[in-house]
Write a structure and sequence with these properties.
Layout (H helix, E strand, L loop, with lengths): L3 E5 L6 H12 L5 E5 L9 H11 L3 H4 L13 E4 L13 E4 L10 H23 L6
Parallel strand pairs: 1-2, 1-3, 3-4
Helix pairs in contact: 1-2, 1-4, 2-4
Keywords: Arsenical resistance
Protein name: Arsenate reductase
GO biological process, one term: response to arsenic-containing substance
Length: about 140
């Protein structure tokens, strides 16, 4: 059975959503990806949606929405996106913090940089899971 990974931050509208989309694109054979937060947003950050659509051909508006921690199943791995405040808590067997800056309200370059970092980190996480570097 594939491990379940949750990408969490407070608002579940930008970085965690990008991580969910890129995980489904690059790591779906290794793990199931979810994203969630402690506060709902009426929509995903539209700059993030545009950048992911432009660079990865994935339309997050069609496949994803803002979710609370209670809206997702129990997970094996929690990845905190980097909250700079108190990150939400979700029980898991493994947890890590990617410490990413929130690009909200910044230039497209910031969003593109964030997306590329997330892509690298997702691929690295998939590798570590595949090679049993993360004990579950």
């Amino acid at each position: 059975m594939k491990p379940k990974v949750a990408f969490i931050c407070v608002h579940n509208s930008c970085r965690s959503q990008m991580a969910e989309a890129l995980s489904k694109l690059f790591a779906s054979e290794v793990f199931e990806a979810y994203s969630a937060g402690t506060e709902l947003r009426s929509q995903i950050n539209q700059d993030a949606v545009r950048v992911i659509k432009e660079f990865y051909k994935v339309d997050m508006n069609e496949t994803q929405y803002s979710k609370l921690l209670t809206d997702i199943p129990e997970v094996d791995i929690v990845v905190k996106m980097g909250c700079n405040v108190v990150c939400p808590f979700l029980p898991s067997k493994h947890e890590e913090d990617w410490g990413l800056e929130d690009p909200t309200g910044k230039s497209d370059e910031e969003f593109i940089t964030t997306a590329k970092i997330i892509e690298e980190k997702v691929k690295d996480l998939a590798e570590r899971i595949k090679n049993s570097k993360i004990i579950l």
